[in-house]
Design a protein that fits this description.
mainly beta; 11 strands; elongated
């Protein structure tokens, strides 16, 4: 399996559907050999080292050389998203899509799963939704920063 990293999506021939990416301009897009976008390389530490990050901006491993980081993203970038995450949400998430980019202090950390991810944002839903939450989702910006955690707080 060969992966390729691309810089500017305009010159790389990208045909993404999102109107305006919010991903930092210094992040380098990584695609698998089949063209599927699997993550980003973020310059980190000494020259030549990059941090492999998922489509939501979560680190997939430590800073490493570009080739190793690209191969890691090609192998695990998408599968790493298919798991339990933690997000601050109200105790009952209302129906529809609730912006969760600035959670009030009374919201609690709840287990969630990713529903949709794009460079413009992502949506999550409670992992074990109560009946009244079956049509509820929360919207987060990408990169998610501290709004989404891989482990319980």
């Amino acid at each position: 399996m060969t992966a390729r990293a691309t810089g500017n999506p305009v010159t790389a021939g990208s045909r993404d559907w999102y109107p305006v990416p919010v991903i930092p301009s210094g992040w380098i897009r990584v695609h698998r050999a089949d063209g599927e976008h699997v993550g980003y390389l973020v310059p980190d530490g000494p020259p030549g080292l990059v941090l492999p990050v998922t489509l939501v901006g979560a680190a997939l491993g430590p800073a490493q050389d570009r080739r190793s980081a690209t191969l890691l993203l090609a192998a695990r970038g998408l599968s790493a998203l298919d798991r339990r995450w933690w997000c601050r949400l109200p105790s009952t998430l209302p129906a529809g899509v609730l912006p969760a980019d600035d959670p009030p202090t009374d919201w609690e950390w709840r287990p969630v799963v990713l529903v949709e991810v794009s460079p413009a944002g992502c949506r999550v839903r409670p992992e074990m939704a109560a009946p009244e939450e079956h049509t509820a989702q929360a919207a987060l910006p990408v990169p998610v920063g501290g709004l989404l955690r891989a482990s319980a707080p």
